[in-house]
Structure formats: C-alpha cells, structure tokens
C-alpha cells in the first residue's frame, strides 16, 4: 500500500498527454533548472520529476471537440552530490503542436558548481552557483497535415471538380525534419540561508535564490557555427533568451513543531521582441501542502496577454524516511486580454525524491541527505559549506 500512491502518480504523468505553449514549464517550482542550469541539484535529494502540461488549446466555435495546441511531456533527473564539488541532472522532453504535428524532441544534461561565500558559520550560509546546460534537439513536421495557399480554390475550396484534394507546389527542403541542433545554457545564482532571525534561532529560517541565465547565447559560437532548427533550410540561428528570477522561502509562524511559510516568486524573461513576467507567491504548511497565486504578463509586438493561475502542491515523506513524493497542480483562473477563447491552462507534475546520493554511495563518500531522518533545520541543510534545500523535515 505504501508504494501504491507513487506508482499511480508515475503512471499518470508518463502515460498522460497535455498541450503546451512552448518547451518550458508554465510554473517555476519543480522545473527550476529548466529556467536556470545553476539551480541544478540544489535540493538535497536524488530526484525524478515527470510532468505533463496543457496550455493554449483552442475550443471549437461550433461546440465540437477542442483543438490541440501543444502536446507536452517531460522527464527530469537531478542528483545533489554532497561528496563532490558539483551537482548534475539529465532531462528529456517532447512537444507536438497542432494538426501539422510540429514535433520538437530535446534531451541533454546540466551541471552546477557551488562556491561557498561563507565558511564555518553556524546560522548563515551562502553559495555562488554556476551552471551549464547542453541540449541536443530536432524539429519534425508532418506536411500532410498542413494546408498551403495554392491548395485553396475560390470556387471548390480544397478539392477540385472531381472531388480530389488540390495538390500543392510546395516542396520541403528536408522531409525528415530540421538538422540536429545543439543549444547551450549558462546560469549564475546566489543561494543563501539564514537560521537566526529576530533572535529566534531556528524558529524563523529563510532561504533565497537570485539568478540570471541565458539560453542559446550567440557569444559562444561564430556566425558560421550557429545552430538552426529551420525545417526548410533557412540559416536563422536559435534566438537568445534571457531569464531573471528571484524566489524565497520565509517561515512566518511555528507552533508545535509545525511551520507556516510564504514563498514569493518573480521571473522575467526576454527573447527578442517578446517579454514575459510572472510574479506571485504561495503559503505552505509544514512542506505538506502549499497553495499559491501567480500573475502572468506576456508582452509581444502584437500586444499584451495577461492571465492568472492557482498552484497547489502536496507532498509527504514516506515511512522509510528516505523517500518523498510531491504532486503539483496548476490551473488558470482567467485569461486577461487574450483575443481568442482558450481552454484553461493546466499542469501536472510528480516528483519522487530519495534521501541518498547514488553517485556518492557508489564512490564511498557522504551520501545521506536526511541525517538520520530528522534534520535540525526546517528550511535548509549544509554539506562542505554548500547549502541544499531541506525537504526531509519531519515532526
């Protein structure tokens, strides 16, 4: 019975399908390293996250079946390494868009190094984290699902007088898809934790992360070495995307060894003429339940689109003390100034965390994140002057 709950969650996320706007998650929590590789492995655990997402699926105007926007699935593996000087992660994701089935498949890895900024401190610790991510990907499309302008007749529509589909003169440059491309992500962050606040040692801890990252940075390659994902042979390089983020976990109340904490969050992204801002926060009870509200503001050359989402997270440490299961749900409340009617964006993630580092266990180094199952600090733990988020606190 103890293993039934995580098994059902795993099947739900791997077997289910969803629809998404792009390859990134709508929400920051659970996908931190997707936004910034410096966040890789900063949770004190070996973690496997699986997720699906539904975003921008349009609805039929005649009341019929809804039309798919994107189908999205992602699997992410991360491992904190308390015995070494770095942490690492691996990921794979796949998105399929619309009737033409524009499919993007990507896989890759990330590594992050933590540099201690404070040493031998009993109540404060901070790290400079530097991260690098490499992604290998390809885009494919099913041209048979597309309609081209020369197929449209002003008299017979998409068919000729004999009822046959009108042909097109379009000849794709490469019917098998785009070239395989490699993209790079660079990130940096400051991660810190404070144990002593308002003269209450250990009762009001706080952790925080402030980071900046750039994806597809053109400064790493020459013009002749640009990577392209064009399906028709164009030489357009992948566009740079900048991400700025700040988030924190602040304990505001403690009663009978149970903690209430708030989690403010702000994320800003920019890619050419498109900019995106997400801000909000959540209130959590003892790392078992969190409810948050987030406002999304997207600006482009065509206008602005705002919407709001509610986010709920539930998690628990299993009786063995070394396994934790977290389930995250996100749902849109309203769509702001979006011009077209769309279904409510929806996201489901499941994270399975393990309290031992597999790599450190194999090498004979320090591998236990749980410190016997009951770490002293609710918010964070340290190893070799490196700070990790503590998800193992139990009453």
Mind explaining what this structure looks like?
By secondary structure, the chain is mainly β. The chain has two domains: 4-138 and 181-389; 142-176, no CATH class. Helices cover 6% and strands 49% of the residues. The chain contains three helices and 16 strands. It has helices at 4-15, 32-35, 358-363, and strands at 46-54, 70-79, 86-97, 102-116, 124-140, 181-197, 200-215, 241-255, 258-271, 274-285, 289-300, 303-317, 323-334, 346-354, 380-383, 386-389. It has a 14-stranded antiparallel barrel. A two-stranded antiparallel ribbon has the order 15-16. Strand 15 and strand 16 form a beta hairpin. The two termini are 22 Å apart. Residues 1-23 and 59-65 have low confidence and may be disordered.
CA radius of gyration: 23 Å
What structural class should be given to the helix and strand makeup?
mainly beta
Provide mean pLDDT, rounded: 78
How many helices?
Answer: 3
The amount of helix comes to under 10%
From the spread of the alpha carbons, the general shape counts as elongated
From the N-terminal CA to the C-terminal CA, the straight-line distance is 22 Å
Spatial ordering of strands, largest sheet:
1-2-3-4-5-6-7-8-9-10-11-12-13-14
């Amino acid at each position: 019975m103890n293993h039934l709950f995580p098994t059902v969650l795993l099947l739900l996320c791997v077997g289910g399908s969803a629809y998404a706007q792009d390859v990134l998650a709508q929400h920051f929590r659970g996908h931190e390293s997707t936004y910034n590789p410096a966040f890789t492995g900063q949770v004190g655990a070996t973690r496997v996250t699986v997720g699906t997402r539904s975003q921008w699926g349009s609805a039929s105007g005649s009341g019929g079946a809804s039309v798919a926007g994107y189908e999205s699935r992602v699997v992410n593996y991360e491992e904190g390494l308390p015995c070494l000087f770095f942490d690492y992660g691996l990921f794979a994701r796949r998105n399929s868009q619309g009737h033409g089935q524009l499919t993007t498949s990507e896989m890759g890895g990330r590594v992050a190094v933590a540099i201690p900024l404070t040493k031998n401190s009993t109540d404060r610790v901070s790290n400079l984290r530097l991260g690098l991510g490499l992604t290998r990907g390809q885009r494919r499309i099913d041209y048979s699902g597309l309609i081209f302008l020369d197929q449209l007749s002003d008299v017979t529509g998409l068919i000729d007088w004999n009822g046959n589909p009108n042909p097109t003169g379009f000849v794709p440059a490469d019917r098998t898809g785009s070239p395989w491309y490699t993209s790079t992500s660079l990130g940096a962050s400051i991660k810190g934790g404070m144990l002593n606040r308002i003269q209450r040692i250990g009762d009001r801890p706080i952790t925080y992360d402030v980071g900046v990252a750039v994806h597809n940075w053109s400064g790493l390659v020459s013009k002749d070495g640009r990577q392209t994902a064009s399906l028709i042979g164009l030489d357009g390089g992948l566009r740079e995307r900048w991400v700025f983020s700040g988030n924190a976990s602040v304990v505001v109340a403690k009663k009978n060894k149970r903690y209430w904490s708030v989690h403010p969050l702000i994320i800003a992204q920019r890619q050419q003429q498109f900019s995106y801002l997400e801000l909000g926060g959540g209130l959590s009870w003892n790392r078992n339940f969190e409810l948050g509200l987030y406002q999304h503001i997207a600006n482009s050359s065509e206008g602005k689109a705002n919407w709001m989402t509610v986010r709920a997270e539930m998690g628990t440490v299993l009786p063995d003390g070394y396994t934790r299961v977290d389930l995250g749900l996100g749902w849109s409340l309203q769509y702001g100034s979006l011009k077209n009617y769309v279904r409510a964006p929806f996201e489901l993630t499941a994270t399975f965390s393990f309290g031992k580092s597999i790599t450190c266990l194999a090498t004979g180094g320090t591998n236990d994140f749980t410190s016997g199952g009951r770490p002293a600090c609710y918010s964070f733990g340290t190893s070799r002057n490196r700070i990790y988020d503590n998800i193992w606190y139990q009453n």
